[in-house]
Amino acid sequence: MAKWLRLFGKKRGSRMSGWWVVGSVGEAAFFGALFLLGVLSLTTVVTWQLFWPESGWLQPGVGFWLMVIVSTSFIVIGLSAFVYQVAQTVASPEMRSAMAIQVRREHARRATGMVDRAELASLPRLQHLTDSPGVKLKYRLPMQRGENVPLLLSALFTLAWNGMTAMLAVIALQGWLRGHPNWMLIAVFLLFTVVSAYGTRWFFRLFTRQSGSGKTAVEVDRMPLFPGDVVQVYLCQYGRVAFRSLHVDLVAFEEATYQQGTDIRTERREVARIPADMPPDWEARPLVADPENPLEVDCRIRLPSDIMHSFQSEHNALTWKIIVYGEAAKWPKFSRSFPVAVYPRSAV
Amino acid sequence: MAQVFPKFSRRRVSTERRVRRRVEPALGVRLLTLQPRVEPLELLEFEYRIQRVELDDVERVEVSVMWYTEGKGTTDIGVHYFESLSQDEVRRLLHCNARTVATTLPGGPLSYEGRLLKIRWCVRLRLYLKDGREFTAEHPFHVGHVDPAANHDGVVSHDG
Question: Prior bond to A224 cis, omega within 30?
Fold first, then answer.
């Protein structure tokens, strides 16, 4: 075969060798054929039932509906992938991005009657940050979701593992009582018991960390925050707890999502930390909360004028969070995050 | 002493193709604002020109003012201004002339030098030729003033 026409490419890091047009045309042809196959099979199945119902072939039932679903999915997958492939081949990334922004603006204009500002697309939305009014200050911040995920996972794992261990115990005990102990089963049961003990300990550690020190509420006097602002923060700690130390920081994280082989990974790194100014009597105050008298703290966070604003795009983000760190006398250390949005001054 | 002779390709390349390979189109982008750092919401003026190419060979020209991310994550882009010139428009607007474009920059995102993430702004010019070749030129510029993440080493200090 001539040297200049390579039908098959090889992956070289992030690029492919060979002529990219061959790959694109091949992919578009495959999905086009899938679409045509779906149309052909769906048409055949439906018209057969309409015009020759007496033939007895593919009577309405499980087989008929399975054919309809499979053919429809071929049509949808084939058509959407074909259009996507053609758009990728014909248009440059900038043209696709410009078209997507135009469609988004048009959609926003129709939905709200207003023109969406392009710069706001890369800033986090405020709706979920401002929909809860505070008791003392203007907004009560939502706690970051995902804090309860490890607790839920550990609960599920511990429940399932302890259930299996209990069943093994019953079977092993039955054999023992009948006078025919299965020593292999007993050895497996002992191994399961060790894992069970570690799992249960893991669950209770997380449970005491989450629930033992009570609920934490954070309120702020404004949203969004702007570089150069002085933000009033109100912290309220419920439950029964005595802290050895408690502090509040505004922390920035960079997040990058990338593909490594067939895996999609997200890396997160802290890039800025602004400690809050605590009240003057902070050192002398007892940091104690009980159910009748929650621990209340008023503090301020001063944002420097040259910090980076919040940013989000499809694979990259810069997020700001107010994080409360606590070290209690009887409980393990805890930290609770409350996302905030920092906007550039120019976005006003 | 060994004699080493240069190795030449056995493929015979026509004179026309050799000339075409050697003479690639020249794309030029120039900012008309004096500073390389532009403030958000400011007017950005630039001019671009295409030289060393027959206008009959041009399929289209695309110009965009855009931001893009660099760093560990997959690259994201956001196009603020975009224009695509067809062959007729190229012949009319770019024949022996530089074309000037002015656009008001948006309020964000600002240029940023982080650790995992960098946000860069640029004017990007793409030239598509009828023979399938594509040429790109970029002119970067900064938007706004943001302290790079590497400068404060995780802690932002502020004066009392």
Answer: yes
